[in-house]
Structure formats: structure tokens, C-alpha cells
Amino acid sequence: MIDITLFLLALTVLIIASITDIKIREVPDWISYTFLFTAITANLILSVIQNNYWMIINSVAGAIFGFLIGLLLFYTGQWGGGDSKILIGLLALIGFNVQTFYGLVTGNIIFIDYLFTSKWLLFIINFAIAGAIYGILFSIGLLISKHKEFSKEFKQIMKTKEIKKIRRFMFNFTLAIIIIFIINYLMRIFTEDVFVLLIGFFPIVMFYIWVSAKAIDNGCMNKKIYANKITIGDWVIKNVYVKRRTKDLLKEAYREFYIKDDKKLSLHAFTQNIALKYRKHKQDFFSMLFLRWNKKELAKEVHIVKTIMQSSSVSLAMKKAKTLKIDKKDIGEFIGFLESIHIYFDKFLVCGFQNTGLTENQVKIVNQLYKQKKIRMIKIKNGLPFIPSFLLGFLIFYFLGFWWKFLL
Questions:
Q1: What is the pLDDT of residue 62?
Q2: Residue 155: partners with Cβ closer than 8 Å, 6 or more residues away
Q3: What is the CA radius of gyration of the chain?
Q4: Angle 282-350-279 (CA atoms, 0-180°, nearest 5)?
């Protein structure tokens, strides 16, 4: 499949990375970056020794392809940055065969032949299978070791209205199939009685598996840590707020936005964005477009937003709204809108759940607030360590090769 030198290199890195991922749920950058550099360098050396420049071309193409896959999975919240970097290194080592892909695009190679010769596809399929098996076994282990937390979360999920509705529907569906099965058994309408019964029980079984997976994710994969121990990329489960006394909501909201998002916006542009978002919030799309195009109308709207938000409390904002002849209901709706975008008079949002995890700026803010004794503990998601599934998938890839040929 691949050169024994490349195999031993990947095996060593994956074992070390698996140990660190299981222990601290993180793969240090020095491991992933060293692996990527070594994988490309090793392919370069082998291409020179074997007089085959396609090896280094395919290695670089594999790194680019791995980067695109890793980027997609990272920004959709499927895994962390360390997992993505290891994937890039692995695909750089395995390579993306540019020649066969070009043959597929030009029609010189048929699709089935391309599948039988694509090492990158073989690895991804093996990784997906290994990952599924590993994920199931890991979840069962969590369920056994944290059965109390699982049981508590399972009961809470089952009490929610949405879950009750789904469960009622599933039970009714299963009951209908059982009735059909009984009628079928008595009248001998169909021949495959057991198959009909299995169809009826399948949805209800899948429903309980789905609820169990949610209970494991919510109850068994979360942990509380000291706020100063969080790192970039950690997934915070619940929004973290800090109480405050507001002097000027507009300026304070602008300062917090600038620190957290690190975007270069003027105070006027920030106020203008709020005005436009509010129009959109009211589901008045055409009005928002008109507001954006009409500079005089936009200036009036910005003035209203600015006047109301330059307040220290809701009551003061209400008083200012009266001077602008704004209806009490409208100002209440506007304050509700501000809260929907996490702008409050009595508190501010430090961080919350996001697919890409905490940013560097958010980690700095949390550490500062910890030193000021305003935040002590934060609940984060203790995600599944993915790297062992990379290791298992890579071993299947190397020792079994294109195993699906034997199935066909």
C-alpha cells in the first residue's frame, strides 16, 4: 500500500497522538505540525530515491485535500483543530493520486476503477467504519461508567414536550404495525410475517437509541473546569454571563463586541448595524433594504437607536423613548431584540457555545475575569477523542488494503 518507512512514521505519530488525545482531549500543535512536515519531506526523499516526482506532487495534493475536509468538519463542529491537523498529515503521507483523478475527469478511467485505486478514499472509508465502531464502544463505556448521570439526563429528555410527541407517534406507528401483523397472521394475506413485525419495531428502537445518544452527549460528556484552565477551541456548553452596572449600554456593548470579535468597526458603524439587524429582526426585509439605501432614513433610525441605547437601565431607555414619541410596545420589542443578540443592561455575555470553540480573545477575557474572581467554574463539552479511530482506520488501511474487492 505505502512504503514501510511512511507506515512506521504514521504509526508512531498516531500512537503518541492517541495517548495525548485520551489523556487531555487535545493534540499538541508540535505533534501535528511536525507530522505534516515530516510526511511531505519523507515523500520528497522517496520521490528522489525512486525517481518518481509524482510522489511529492500527490503528497502536496493530499495535504490540500485533507485541509479542505478538515476545514469543513472543523467549522461544522464535528471535531477540533487538532484532529483536522492530524488528518491533513495523514492524507499528505498517503497522497491524493492526481493522475487517476485526472483520468476520471477526462473519462479515461471509469468510476469503479477509480474507487479501486484511490488510496485516500480507502483510508477515509476505513476511518469512517473504524470511527463508527470506536464511537459505539466508547459510548457504551461512558454509559456504564457514568450510569447515574446518564439515567438522570435520559429521564429529563424524556420529560420534554417534543420528545413526548415523538414517542407517542412512534408507539402509535408500532401499534399499527402490530395490528397489521396480527391481521396478516390470522388471514395469511402476506407471507413475510416477521419482516412486517420488524418494520414496526425498527422506528421505536431507533428512537430510544437516538434519545440515549443525546443523554450520553449531554450527561456523560460534560465536565466542569476552573475558568483559568480553558484553552482555545474548548466547547462551552452554556452561555457564561457576568453581572455589571451599565453606564452607557451602547459604548459598553461596542467595547465588548470589539474585544470578543476583534472586528474593526467604528461606533457609528456598530450602531448602524444594530439598526439594520432590528429591521431584519422584524422580518421586514424590503424595509431593511430601503433603510440601507436611503441615507436620510438610515440616519434617523441610527439616531433613535443611539439615543435609546445611551442609557444605564431599561427604565431610563423607556423615558428616552417617550421623548422620541416611540410607543411603549415598540421600545419593549427593541429591548427584547437587544437581548436576542446578547446585549443586556444588567450583564454581558463572556462566551457561549459555538461550533469552532473558544477564540483566543475569549480565552483572554475569561482568564482576566477569573483573576478578578468574577468567574470560577465553566462547564465544557468533553468531546470524544477521535485520534484512536484514526489509528484503527490506518491499521485497517495498511493491512487489509482494498478489502471491498473481495466482497464484490
A1: 93
A2: none
A3: 28
A4: 10
* 3: Cβ contacts below 8 Å, ≥ 6 apart: 46
Cα separation of 191 and 86, whole Å? 52
Phi, psi dihedrals of residue 238, rounded to the nearest 5°: -115, 155
Show the 3-state SS of the chain: CCCHHHHHHHHHHHHHHHHHHHHHCCCCHHHHHHHHHHHHHHHHHHHHHCCCCHHHHHHHHHHHHHHHHHHHHHHCCCCCHHHHHHHHHHHHHHCCCHHHHHHHHHCCCCHHHHHHHCHHHHHHHHHHHHHHHHHHHHHHHHHHHCHHHHHHHHHHHHHCHHHHHHHHHHHHHHHHHHHHHHHHHHHCCCCCHHHHHHHHHHHHHHHHHHHHHHHHHHHCCEEEEEHHHCCCCCCECCCEEEECCCCCHHHHHHHHHHHHHCCCCCHHHHHHHHHHHHHHHCCCHHHHHHHHHCHHHHHHHHHHHHHHHCCCCHHHHHHHHHHCCCCHHHHHHHHHHHHHCCECCCEEEEECCCCCCCCHHHHHHHHHHHHCCCCCEEEEECCCCCHHHHHHHHHHHHHHCCCHHHHC
Cell of 90: 495523514
Instruction: Look at residue 265 and tell me whether its pLDDT is greater than 80.
Output: no
Residue type present at position 231: T
58 alpha carbon, distance to own chain's centre: 29
- How many CA atoms lie less than 13 Å away from 329 in the CB half-sphere? 0
Q: What are phi and psi of 17, to 5 degrees?
A: -65, -35
- Could you give the angle at which helices 81-94 and 4-24 cross, rounded to 10 degrees? 170
Q: What is the band of 39 on the pLDDT scale with cuts at 50, 70, 90? A: very high
**What nine digits make up the cell of 141?**
463505556
Which amino acid is residue 391, in one-letter code? L
Q: From CA 150, how far away is CA 217, in angstroms rounded?
A: 9
pLDDT of residue 59: 94
Query: Does the pLDDT of residue 290 top 70, yes or no?
Result: no
Q: Model pTM?
A: 0.71
From residue 359, alpha-carbon distances to 209, 223, 228, 268 in Å are 34, 19, 14, 25
Nearest 5 degrees, angle CA 139-CA 157-CA 165? 120
d(CA 317, CA 255): 20
Contact between 22 and 385 (Cβ < 8 Å): yes
Other Cβ atoms closer than 10 A to 35: 25
Residue 270 and residue 266: Cα distance in Å, rounded? 6
